[in-house]
């Protein structure tokens, strides 16, 4: 089964071909334009998707050494994400489906982050827990079976990736700051600064207090810029610790409550080195099977859309051209 995946929910235009066992191509056109604004500008994202969508899909087919007639299904992200951005990928996919007669399958972007863990030969077994942490979401999901997901809890305010990016902006880092904070944190001491970790009931998260606390810590300094320059790696390590520690605590709680033996990480923030190493320690201590996608499949990509599309196709979950986009998952 050959599935063409198309992703355009945020600031990466991506297309990929999955043949049921391996990824034949995964082309990602990133949008550098947002860097100068310190965050994704929705209108600019839509325009950039519009400019890149055709060449990205063409390149994905070329790298897979296939033409569109060889494709069995077109899988496309239909939400959650930026409405204008989603519409570019979805309209393109519908046009292609209409012209070729290839069936279309709508894929939930957050589900796809989870099923990115099904790329390799060794696959997670049900039930498992998914920590889905990205620029827009921070969730713990109990995955009972294919597409049977129970949301155990999520953030009340900022998502983890948003916290990395917004705090990074305060430190003078460019967007997206998450990967830069990750790199700098490796050189720092996570105990150098004590930032608050929200300890909410159940499986909820909160990161807005941390953001405010970093802001006030910097304001204490007469020369905040010089202070940041002098302590950058320690600040990054301490901030990364404050963001990742609640995730590990909540996953541990869920593992014990639901007696689950498999945990998967998903979403852009799952590329984070400190999170990966803390989760590895948790998995070793509790004899858990931990799945962590390769870095290329953590951040937004169409391979995860193609794989999820294939899993849906195998279960007869096919859509019509009436498929609608949705901006928010709630
Ligand atoms: O999943 P993703 O590519 O897009 C969304 O669906 O939001 O996630 C992007 C987020 C950004 O906030 C980015 O800063 C963060 O993931 N991110 C990281 C790392 N790599 C990406 N955060 C921390 N450490 C990283 N290595
Ligand atoms: Zn994402």
What this model shows, in words?
With 330 residues, this protein is of the alpha/beta class. The protein is 42% helix and 18% strand. It has nine helices and ten strands. The strands form two sheets. The protein has a five-stranded mixed β-sheet, with helices on both faces. Strand 2 and strand 3 (23-30) form a beta hairpin. The longest helix is centred in the C-terminal third of the chain and has 35 residues, at 224-258. It is globular and about 65 Å long. Residues 109, 113, 134, 267-268, 300 line the site of zinc ion.
Provide a brief overview of the structure.
Helices cover 42% and strands 18% of the residues. It is α/β, with parallel strands linked by helices and 330 residues long. The model has no long low-confidence stretch (mean pLDDT 96).
**Broad CATH class of the largest domain:** Alpha Beta
- Hetero compounds: 5'-O-[(R)-(carboxyoxy)(hydroxy)phosphoryl]adenosine, zinc ion
Strand pairing plus helix content: what structural class?
alpha/beta
The oligomerization state is single chain
Strand order of the largest sheet: 3-2-1-4-5
**Biggest β-sheet: count, sense, barrel?**
5 strands, mixed
Runs with pLDDT <50, length 5+?
Answer: none
**Total separate domains:** 2
- Provide the β-strand percentage band: 15-25%
Rg measurement, Å: 20 Å
Q: What's the helix-strand series?
A: EEEHEHEHEEEHHHHEHEH
Query: What is the count of helical runs?
Result: 9
> Mean pLDDT, rounded to whole units?
96
Alpha-carbon distance between the two ends: 32 Å
CATH topology of the largest domain: Nucleotidyltransferase, domain 5
């Amino acid at each position: 089964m050959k599935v063409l995946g198309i992703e355009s929910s945020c600031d990466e235009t991506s297309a990929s071909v999955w043949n049921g066992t391996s990824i034949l191509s995964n082309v990602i056109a990133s949008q550098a334009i947002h860097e100068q604004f310190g965050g994704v500008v929705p209108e600019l994202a839509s325009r950039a998707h519009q400019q890149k969508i055709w060449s990205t899909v063409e390149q994905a087919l070329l790298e897979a050494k296939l033409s569109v007639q060889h494709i069995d299904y077109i899988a496309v992200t239909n939400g959650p994400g930026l409405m204008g951005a989603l519409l570019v990928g979805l309209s393109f996919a519908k046009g292609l489906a209409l012209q070729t007669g290839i069936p279309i399958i709508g894929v939930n972007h957050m589900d796809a982050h989870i099923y990115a863990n099904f790329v390799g030969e060794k696959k997670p077994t049900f039930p498992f827990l998914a920590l889905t942490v990205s620029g827009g979401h921070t969730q713990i999901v109990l995955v009972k079976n294919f597409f049977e997901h129970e949301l155990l809890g999520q953030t009340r305010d900022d998502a983890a990736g948003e916290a990395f990016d917004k705090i990074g902006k305060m430190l003078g880092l460019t967007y997206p700051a998450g990967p830069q904070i990750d790199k700098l944190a490796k050189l720092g001491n996570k105990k150098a600064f004590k930032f608050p970790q929200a300890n909410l009931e159940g499986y909820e998260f909160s990161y807005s207090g941390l953001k405010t606390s970093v802001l006030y810590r910097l304001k204490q300094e007469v020369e905040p810029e010089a202070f940041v320059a002098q302590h950058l790696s320690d600040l990054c390590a301490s901030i990364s610790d404050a963001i990742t520690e609640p995730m590990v605590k909540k996953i541990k709680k869920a593992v014990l409550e639901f007696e689950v033996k498999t945990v998967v990480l998903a979403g852009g923030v799952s590329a984070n080195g400190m999170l990966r190493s803390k989760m590895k320690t948790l998995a070793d201590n509790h004899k858990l099977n931990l799945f962590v996608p390769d870095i290329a499949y953590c951040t937004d990509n169409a391979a995860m859309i193609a794989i999820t599309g294939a899993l849906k196709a195998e279960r007869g979950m096919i859509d019509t051209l009436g498929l609608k986009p949705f901006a928010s998952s709630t």
